[in-house]
Amino acid sequence: MSQRVDAPYLDAFAASFLVLGRLHLGHATEGTRRDIYSQLSDWPFWYEPSPLPELADLYADAHAAHTRGIDLLKRSWESHEDDETIRMDQDFLYGVSAHARVSPFESVHVGEEQLVFDTETIQVRMYYSRLGLQAPRLHTEPDDHLGMEFAFLSQGCQQMMTALEQDRTEDYTRVRDIVAAFTAEHPLRWVPATVREAEAQSHTAWMQGVEALSYATFASWCVTLSTQGLVPCTDVVSGFAAPYRGITAAHKGVAAGKFGDPGVPGETRETASAAAPLTGKPGELSEPGNPGDHASENPTR
């Protein structure tokens, strides 16, 4: 196995994780939803010519989720789902305005106490720092938000592409190994079950579509890493087979607003959107010296 993810794949994953990360972190404006609708036919899917036999079912599942997500987002726009309905659905889903139906924080799903700012939050923070990144509201809001973890994968793909473009093989290998290890140790342990549950718990076609595309993108990413020998196949299979753990009553109180709205750094929820849905640079994580900068003003590579 080459253990190399080629630039076209990295480019597609970087863009997709960027857009999905922002959609999980903030509300999509009508303009953003219009832009995404106009480009849905170009939303990438990773046609793996020869996935490992053990991953064939997951690959097929990812393709089905991709198709379903595209159809749901089209239905949302064509049925004229309004901003307020979508906003309320996302807020109640993730616990911004009330008790969370599905928590967007890793430590709630993986930690023994199912509370935010647990061990997993610190571990995720350490991974961010290994690529010279940090969450925009360090020590104030948890680092292990679903949108943040997707943003980190996007940043990692961007850094790998830069290393390939500049023929810096050692840097490429270092970033690749960090991102692959992060994938196996963190999102793989909770994201598959969580986005499946979030799709089931969502009330709008928009949020259902976002969750379905999140599943499709992350599943495709894991199939790609495993096919290249970067994440063990058994880990991928067990990660996607793991059941949803649920949320304890204790967490519901925390999710109801103790840490506020995760948001996108430097932007309000109303303006936090992916203006160019399938292009652009990651922006939810910042360089340690610039935690409060606008993503568009200080893109990190």
Describe the structure.
- The radius of gyration is 18 Å and the shape is globular.
- With 301 residues, it is an all-alpha fold.
- Helix 1 packs antiparallel against helix 7, helix 7 runs antiparallel to helix 8 and helix 9 packs parallel to helix 11.
- 57% of the residues lie in helices and 0% in strands.
- It has a single domain, classed as TorD-like.
Topology (SSEs and partners):
Blueprint: H1 7-25, H2 30-39, H3 56-78, H4 83-94, H5 106-110, H6 119-130, H7 146-165, H8 169-185, H9 187-201, H10 205-227, H11 233-241, H12 249-255
Order of helices and strands: HHHHHHHHHHHH
What form results from the Cα inertia axes?
A: globular
**SS element count, helices:** 12
Q: How does CATH name the architecture?
A: Orthogonal Bundle
- CATH class membership: Mainly Alpha
Structural class: mainly alpha
Give the DSSP E fraction (strand runs of 2 or more residues).
Answer: under 5%
Helical content band: 55-70%
**Euclidean distance between termini CA atoms:** 27 Å
Low-confidence stretches: 249-283, 288-301
Task: Considering the chains and any ligands shown, give keywords for the structure.
single chain; TorD-like; 12 helices
Short description:
By secondary structure, the chain is mainly α. It has helices at 7-25, 30-39, 56-78, 83-94, 106-110, 119-130, 146-165, 169-185, 187-201, 205-227, 233-241, 249-255. It contains twelve helices and no strands.
